[in-house]
Amino acid sequence: MEEETVETPHGPARVHLTTVDEPIGALVLGHGAGGGVTAPDLQAAAKVATGLGLVVALVEQPYRVAGRRSPAPAKQLDAAWHAVVEQLRAGPMKGLDIVTGGRSSGARVACRTAIGVGAVAVLCLAFPLRPPGRTKDGQPKPSRLEELDGAGVPTLVVQGERDTFGMPPEAPGRQVVVVDGDHSLKKDMARIRATIEAWLPTVVGRAG
Q1: Transmembrane residues, as ranges (predicted)?
Q2: Domain coordinates of the chain in residue numbers?
Q3: Which residue has the higher pLDDT, 39 or 136?
Q4: 61-85 pLDDT, tens per residue?
């Protein structure tokens, strides 16, 4: 695995890149709001992808590189993500179909930017559909379903059955796989790996 710094409009991002011989595609994954790229589900997805012949980049957003745990605003996250994917597309992922994704907040970024960065598909690990709890006036907090619906490309959602952020619905072009566990997706790693392993070849490296 190689580590490199990529400049973005909001400071340097850090990319952990794993290359393969004769790649059939590429996978770019982002982390959760307060976490990093060492999350078990991200690591599992990366390992599966490289085993299938994909170049993999795990991306640390600039706020995390700067040592902050509180996430940047959505527009900044999206702009930094665009910059990173653009540079990967011009370099180690040149000419490859690119699947983007991430866990939790990273999945939201991938959905919001999929069309803009030219992703062929999106992998969502623990998509945070609706924050738990209620607003000050007792109403449910706003849903992020519009972001998920707006991905515009084939999407796989892997969601823990006890995720307090809720369960996204299936829809045309969107597969939702429910696994044992909660929002951390740490429990049913075998099912998570098998699900990703079955799905990735359907969206990259296809004949014709």
Answers
A1: none
A2: 2-203
A3: 39
A4: 999 999 998 899 999 999 999 999 9
Phi, psi of 98 (to 5 degrees): -115, 125
Task: Look at residue 180 and give its three-state secondary structure.
Answer: coil
pLDDT at res. 208: 34
3-state secondary structure of 110: helix
Asked if 185 contacts 158 with a C-beta cutoff of 8 angstroms, the reply is yes
- Answer whether 0.90 is exceeded by the pTM: yes
Count of Cβ atoms closer than 10 Å to residue 182 Cβ: 15
- Residue ranges of alpha helices (H) inside the chain are 40-52, 62-65, 74-90, 105-117, 145-149, 189-203
CATH of domain 2-203: 3.40.50.1820
- CB contact at 8 A, 185 and 196: no
Residues 8, 60: contact at Cβ < 8 Å? Answer: no
- Which of 160, 166, 163, 155 minimizes the C-alpha distance to 196? 155
CA angle in degrees (0–180, nearest 5) for 127-129-130: 140
Better-scored residue on pLDDT, 205 or 6: 6
Query: Of 94, 96, 92, 74, whose CA–CA distance to 30 is shortest?
Result: 74
